[in-house]
Amino acid sequence: MKDRRTSFELPPVWLSWAVGIACLAAILDMPYGFYQFLRLVVTGYAAYVSYVYFRNGGTAIAWTFAFLALIYNPIFPIAMTKGVHAIFNLLAAAAVLGELYLIRSRVAQALPEPFPAVELPLIGPDDRKDFAKFLAREILIIIIVIGGAIGAFYFGVQAYQSSQNEARDYTVAPRD
To answer: What is the pTM of this model?
Structure first.
């Protein structure tokens, strides 16, 4: 019986560069429409890349992009301050461009040009140092993303509490 699962292609390189540069440009003061468009683009891109990596077995990268798709989703937006959004924009740019550089360049180097049908492992048994570096980078990315989420939650709670404190009426009632 034939396996019905097929391997899905990653987005083109130019699209990865465009999403990464757009995330970096979002740090600057841009019109509000740009940020709405960026939410749509990053959510779609991250969800698709996450799906491809889940189908092909790269779980750490898949979870990183799934988290980015969740953070940037336009349907249930997560309210954050501009500074926290800037941190997530940097993290998203690092994840997109890092995946482009670390993973795709390794795959391109692993497959020889005259024999495209031969599948070579992404990391061979002799590449233990490279694997350790790769694993350390992925763990660092996950720690940064989780730390950013915790920081965003903390700053969101602080902003909510400060807005509640400002809304209270502190007038003093006159004495008899």
So the answer is: 0.57
